[in-house]
Amino acid sequence: MPTPNFVILYVDQPLESGVFYSALLGREPVESAPTFVLFVLDGGFKLGLWSRHTVEPAAAAAGGGGEVVFALETPAAVDATHADWAKRGLKIIQAPTDLDFGRTFVAVDPDNHRLRVYWLSDAGER
Fold first, then answer.
1. What is the pTM of this model?
2. Does the N-terminal or the C-terminal CB of the chain have fewer CB atoms within 10 Å?
3. What angle do CA 37, 43, 119 make, to 5 degrees?
4. Is the Cβ–Cβ distance between 117 and 78 less than 8 Å?
5. Tens digits of residue pLDDT in 38-73
6. Backbone conformation region of residue 112, classed left if phi is above 0, alpha if psi is from -120 to 50, else beta
7. What are the distances in angstroms from CA 112 to CA 3, 4, 49?
8. Using one digit for the tens of pLDDT, what is the confidence trace for 40-49?
9. SS3 68
């Protein structure tokens, strides 16, 4: 079976969302147009931002129905990323907390797509 290597988020304003993700990811998009912006991340994984107004077939859902997840190496890195993102003005919908899998927090992008940051504890690896 093929391995997924590309996620597309449907957004209201791709160019504005591209500016947001460029700052968040620390890199420029490889493609940037009024209806679509594309980032190529480490390892070749791609993140696309497609206008929810022009995607075909039309999208039935908006942001908030899934998560883009960022794995970090330590609980302290989770807390530091939370502090950085809060300082940048990202809306935080879950403050850093310890759950059964490890330490995590959740922010949202301008279209309410959830951005989860986590560290996987030993208990979470089981």
1. 0.89
2. N
3. 95
4. yes
5. 999 999 999 999 999 999 999 887 787 889 999 999
6. left
7. 26, 23, 13
8. 999 999 999 9
9. strand
